[in-house]
Amino acid sequence: MDCPVVLHQLMLDCWERERAERPTFSQILNMLDKLIRNPGTLRRTGGDRPTAALLESELGSEVCVSVLPEVCAPVSSVCEWLRSIGLERYRDTLAAAGYTTLDSLLALTHQEMDRLGIITASHQDILIASVQQEMLSQMQHMQHTMVPV
């Protein structure tokens, strides 16, 4: 598929979510505005599988390609991170399973998500790719703020 991942996910959010959970017109407009202002987010298409190596190479070249553009800024909690990627509905599920830090989420697998009831493949891909990207972003942020001794 040649559709950029972020647009594909936006369409899925509009189609798959319950009516009350779907993005509002203003949220969609805001997201499209961000995509227009940051065209690098449109580079990855559906044929590209997000992997740690792909995310690392994109981040290393100062291109922040994410499932949702907001993921580029470091976040401080799992709840905040889930909100930023539009999957806050899994907050209680992940917390009950002991996934309370971003570090712990790095161990999350597709099989574990199936066991937890997170069965939508696109949501699983988003969770795995964006937690890897978030951790890389935080490591880069730490490198830039370290003071040489």
From TrEMBL:
The keyword Phosphoprotein applies. Residues 73-137 form the SAM domain. Its main location: membrane. GO terms for molecular function: ATP binding; transmembrane-ephrin receptor activity. Gene3D superfamilies: Transcription Factor, Ets-1 (1.10.150.50), Transferase(Phosphotransferase) domain 1 (1.10.510.10). Keywords: ATP-binding, Cell membrane, Kinase, Membrane, Nucleotide-binding, Phosphoprotein, Receptor, Transferase. It is a single-pass type I membrane protein. The keyword Kinase applies. GO terms for cellular component: dendrite; plasma membrane. Its EC number is 2.7.10.1. It is found in: Cell membrane. Pfam families: SAM_1. One of its GO terms (biological process) is axon guidance. PANTHER family: EPH RECEPTOR A5 (PTHR46877), EPHRIN TYPE-A RECEPTOR 4 (PTHR46877:SF18). This is receptor protein-tyrosine kinase. It comes from Etheostoma spectabile (orangethroat darter).
